[in-house]
Amino acid sequence: MGSPAVIVIGAGPVGQTAALLLARWGLPVLVLDQRPRRDLEGSRSICQQRDVLDLWSALGVPEAAEEGLTWTTARTYYRDRELFSWSFDLRGPLPPFVNLSQSRTEELLDAAIAAQPRIEVRWDHEVTDLEQDAGGVTVRCGERVLRAPYVLACAGGRASGVRRALGVTFDGHSFDDLFLICDIRADLPGWENVRRFHFDPEWNPGRQVLIHPCPDSTYRVDWQVPPDYDATPDDISRKIRQILGDREYTLVWQSVYRFHSRIASRMRVGRVLLAGDCAHLVAPFGARGLNSGVPDAENAAWKLAAVLHGWAPEELLETYHDERHAAALENLQVTGATMRFLVPGTPAGRAHRRDVLERGAAEEIDSGRFAEPYWYVDSPLTTPGRPFAGRPPKGQSPPPAPGVILPDCSIPGGRLRELCRAGFLLLLGEMCDSSLFAQILGKVTTAPLAVRELAEIDGTGALAETLGAAPDEAWLIRPDAHIAAIIPHAGPDDAAAALSRALRLRVQ
């Protein structure tokens, strides 16, 4: 590999995904990680949402969706009684999520990276300083000096040195209580497809316990424990026995950690972009950590590619901060509300939670709103049009609108989303002349662009009906599968203006 176009700091799932995306865009990538080698221990981040699985499939890693376990039922308990249960809608070409250990996810992504000649990974490279100038970024790892036009920092929540070098603050707070995590392997008939959330069980009074099934008869158990908790082998065994009784089990891995709620003051500083836990930390209820870090990587990758290939001006990179910082704030808001219910910090909050649980008011019990793609409705790249319906009910997706991610659905020969991510995609109703649109839009940019008629993709009309697309509409889809514009009564000039806006091009 020659000189890198982008240095990615951090070889976790977010950095791995970013490297694969950048390489897919034809860019040489150098990945740096401060660890001496890959540490494949523990479940850590276990829940990958459908849109993340879709992206990994596009990168040649379909095994994550295939190997992961999708539980079907969520049961919620208060003390010794079940309050309610609910199930995911499992319809669709991909599962709504899977449970798969981060260790296995990293193995799968590593295999894809090893097959990609544009990516080089260097371990034992701790970044000690960053310096920028008009031509690029100098990255120092002790005495070693590296350079690239751009840097994407995916170095995790403890990357204080990287943030300090950029002058970025990491404001927020940490929760006092600790959480004990154990991966347990056991034969538990009837538990394989059920997630259990226990409020105030007699074997963890005043706190919560969450039990997730994972592949290979493994279960992830999270106990909320006091700030001074001492994770001795005897106490861990006692806690497990309180759940499993006298069943045989194997303790595979354990860890104790504290939840944080923090966000970087900037996610773009000149030629350096921050992504994943390096830019934001949230409590894990709702699985909004990895499932927001991977969209960070995708958003950054297509914009870096557009700038480096000359398809867009450098000011496009500022919209990375605009869009993903807003997404991080949304996640902080959602997870903050969850943590205020799970760990109320005031007598009034504790009384409210006790009242809600005693009444079994399912609609008021907040154990986490599951991760969902952020909607770029207010982005400068989005052309206003069809109104956004607002945040949908829990477990549902918003109807298609500018800024929302394109719904995935089955089409003849595959899935709709498989047509995305190679560049921009223009979907046309039957009243639009595709050859004329292609001719006009080809004059706007040299960025990859595919123009497809909905009737050509699916001659039955089912696709247009699923999307709610009118015969005279044009839908412009970004390389990250988000809808940039839905243009009614569309003409080629309207579509060209939307494409210019989506790339921050100056309209002549």
TrEMBL record:
**Which Pfam families does this entry report, sorted A to Z?**
FAD_binding_3
Q: Does the keyword Oxidoreductase apply?
A: yes
Membrane-crossing residue ranges in chain numbering? none
Q: Which domain of life is it from?
A: Bacteria
Q: Report keywords, A-Z.
A: FAD, Flavoprotein, Monooxygenase, Oxidoreductase
Tell me one GO molecular function of this protein: monooxygenase activity
Domain FAD-binding: where? 6-332
Cofactor dependence is on: FAD
- Tell me the InterPro entries matching this sequence: FAD-bd, FAD/NAD-bd_sf, RIFMO-like
Name listed for the protein in its UniProt record? FAD-dependent monooxygenase
Organism for this UniProt entry: Nonomuraea typhae
